[in-house]
């Protein structure tokens, strides 16, 4: 079965290439990371000068011209569309109530520095206590709820600077 890849060069040009096309390329590895490629009887000298396998990013020299190449397969595209990129972190500027409930305790105040997983507040919902923890390192800008108050789903609870 053929697999499709999205390829971006120099952060500008983007195109899709099929694994069947890749397998049909007439190329020979002449030494490690250096290849001789023939396309429509036209020769190309290709050298991979830098590679980051985990990020699927490469710097490639083709006939003495440098190109940065980013490769994304179908799984990468699906993961990106779902918002679960590896190594990427979304910047979260605020925390909203995930459900309606009662604020039982607030452990932070504006100006407090917090790190990932620092407990921020306890929200009671459906007779269960839910600890809301910090999703990132940062400084608390504001706390809108108060101990003993009720909140609706989606209501702003905490803002980060």
Description:
Pfam families: Biotin_lipoyl. InterPro entries: Biotin_BS, Biotin_Carboxyl_Carrier/Decarb, Biotin_lipoyl, Single_hybrid_motif. It comes from Olleya namhaensis. With 161 residues, the chain is mainly beta. The chain has helices at 19-23, 74-82, and strands at residues 4-9, 13-18, 26-31, 34-39, 42-52, 57-62, 65-73, 94-96, 101-106, 113-114, 119-125, 128-133, 138-143, 150-151, 156-160. It is built from 2 helices and 15 strands. Strands 2-1-7-6-5-4-3 form a 7-stranded antiparallel sheet. It has a 4-stranded antiparallel sheet with strand order 8-15-13-10, with no helix packed on it. Strands 12-11-9-14 form a 4-stranded antiparallel sheet, with no helix packed on it. The mean pLDDT is 88.
β-strand number: 15
Give me the number of helical elements: 2
What Rg, in angstroms, do the CA atoms define?
A: 25 Å
Shape: elongated
Helix % is under 10%
Number of domains: 2
Distance between the termini: 49 Å
Low-confidence stretches: none
Q: How are strands sequenced across the largest beta sheet?
A: 2-1-7-6-5-4-3
Order of helices and strands: EEHEEEEEHEEEEEEEE
Largest sheet: 7 strands, antiparallel
- The whole-number mean of residue pLDDT values reads 88
Proportion of residues in extended strands: over 45%
């Amino acid at each position: 079965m053929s697999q499709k890849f999205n390829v971006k060069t120099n952060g500008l040009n983007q195109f899709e290439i099929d694994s069947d096309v890749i397998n049909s390329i007439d190329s020979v590895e002449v030494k490690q990371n250096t290849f001789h490629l023939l396309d429509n009887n036209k020769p190309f000298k290709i050298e991979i000068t830098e590679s980051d396998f985990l990020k699927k990013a490469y710097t490639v020299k083709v006939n003495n011209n440098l190109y940065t190449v980013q490769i994304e397969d179908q799984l990468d595209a699906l993961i990106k569309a779902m918002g679960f990129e590896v190594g990427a972190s979304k910047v979260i500027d605020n925390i909203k109530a995930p459900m309606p409930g009662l604020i039982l305790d607030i452990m932070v105040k504006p100006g407090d520095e917090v790190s990932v997983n620092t407990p921020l507040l306890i929200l009671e919902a459906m007779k269960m206590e839910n600890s809301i923890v910090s999703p990132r390192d940062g400084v608390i800008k504001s706390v809108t709820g108060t101990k003993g108050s009720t909140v609706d789903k989606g209501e702003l609870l905490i803002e980060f600077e």
